Fold Iron ABC transporter permease.
Amino acid sequence: MMIEKNKGKWIGLGIGSIIVLFFMWGSVIWGLTKIDTQMVIDSFLRFDGSNEHIIIQDTRIPRSLIAAAVGASLAMAGAIMQGITNNPLASPSIFGVNAGASFFVVLGITAFGMTSLMSFTWLAFLGATLAVIIVYSLGTLGKDGLTPIKMTLAGAAIAALFSSLTQGMLTLNEQSLDQALFWLAGSVQGRDLNILTAVFPYILTGLVASLLIGKQINVLAMGEDLAKGLGQKTWLIKVLAALTIVLLAGGAVAVAGPIGFIGIVIPHVARWMVGIDYRWVIPYSGMLGAVLLLIADIGARYIIMPAEVPVGVMTAVIGVPFFIYIARRGINE
């Protein structure tokens, strides 16, 4: 009965999954180096060490997988954040995830001379986790406990603090600037598949958890008092949601750097497509987030070819007009 009732949404997920696979395939074959479908097949069945086969195996396929995983994770994290805070502008950046990750990466470069992407990955994951813990701790202060407005204000304050400290370190140590800028811009270019596999268990756990708490977020989104009246342990749901955000957004930022706007834009598109039921908003957000980042990454290859634009710049170009629209609509309401 439930499947029949939501038949259109299931069909939409199926079509969307095919679109994701199409752009993942496009991410492998489109770019500066000319690659066709037969080359991709031959690189698996008859690898000959040619430049094209090496690019397919070592660059294009990892890049495609990373873009899909990061886009889905950021969008789902954004959907959860908007659900539990009742804030249409909520995203990983509002919890200080991006700023905390960036601070720890720059700290590792300037204070400890770290240079490898793998070390950046674990530093970023640690920074993102610490940022969310601090935001939740500050959000629980006061007699009302954890509230959406306090979480939003705490997140904004922590994001500003970490951003200021990051800028200060870069100003004091200009030698670290070049090493940090590429990561700070956000990119899936040059990321090794080992970076994704290192954090994938955490991302996968977050993906599964996000699909399981959709019903609880529906209740929480109706209001704190109503949720408590219905017997929901709101503090527990918020803690579980925070852990899920850490796994999703922290893992994504650790792999690709602080890519913005996906977590803001995509949940709104998902709600426009399937309504306000977070049991559907979250999976649709993951699907659409993967599509958006794949498209942005493919487009980044052609803007100033043979050079590339960081994909974080592309998502900003796409996301800023939408962000302004959401902000203006919220003010007018």
Residues 51-85 form the longest helix (35 residues). The two ends are 37 Å apart (CA to CA).
